[in-house]
Write a structure and sequence with these properties.
Elements: H1 2-25, E1 27-30, E2 37-39, H2 46-58, H3 63-90, H4 97-112, H5 122-138, H6 155-160, H7 175-203
Antiparallel strand pairs: 1-2
Helix pairs in contact: 1-7, 2-3, 2-5, 2-7, 3-4, 3-5, 3-7, 5-7
């Protein structure tokens, strides 16, 4: 029960912070009649943190798990960044086979690195890759879709070059910023994981030692 309460409270705080960061605090122009603003290029992505947070506990929920998930997040996200960069050079829009080919190559490489040793948590690299890839799609598949990342963070940019991101281009983001936002948020999720584990350990009553 202590773990559930701690995670519940931290989840509330994380959502409140990340959503305000993305749509109120670190933003471009305000969207008329919406009460929200156009997100900046760098964003904290609520759902991505929950991926690495869960992976932290899947990997053991201890200090070693934290290191494994951070490393896995870096490997998986870099593989995604390479995909964003190279796939459009292989096959441009509207053909998807270049993206599919790069995903296959990166998956092969991520699994092959298993030979590096126990410090490499391959099960964490795939969700990290998927998080980056999902954000890339939501923000306009920039570099593959021409101008997909939009022209900027002002209302004029949104009108002239909205990009192909969600909500009529509001979420359009250049792919380099997509990668940075994703990898930073993945690390934040791992940090939330170890914080929740440490707080739970501190507040959980210790069993009394048996009397002699």
């Amino acid at each position: 029960m202590p773990l559930a309460i701690v995670i519940g409270v931290l989840s509330f705080l994380w959502c409140e912070f990340a959503l305000n960061f993305q749509f109120h605090w670190v933003t471009g122009d305000e969207i008329p009649d919406a009460g929200l603003s156009i997100p900046a290029d760098f964003q904290l992505i609520v759902w991505i943190a929950f991926i690495s947070w869960g992976l932290f506990f899947a990997a053991g929920g201890d200090n070693a798990a934290f290191g494994k998930i951070v490393v896995a997040s870096i490997f998986g996200s870099v593989a995604a960044l390479i995909t964003f960069w190279l796939a459009p050079m292989i096959a441009e829009m509207p053909d998807f086979w270049g993206i599919s080919l790069m995903v296959g190559i990166m998956a092969l490489i991520l699994v092959a690195i298993l030979i590096a040793g126990d410090w490499y948590y391959v099960a964490g690299t795939f969700p990290a890759f998927a998080a980056c890839f999902g954000l890339w799609v939501a923000t306009g598949i920039d570099n593959w879709a021409e101008g997909g990342g939009g022209g900027g963070n002002t209302l004029a940019d949104l009108a002239d070059a909205p990009g192909t991101g969600a909500f009529g281009g509001v979420l359009s983001t250049p792919y380099g910023w997509v990668w940075l936002s994703a990898v930073v948020t993945l690390v934040v999720g791992a940090v939330l994981g170890i914080i929740s584990a440490k707080i739970t350990a501190a507040v959980t009553p210790k069993p009394r030692a048996a009397e002699a």
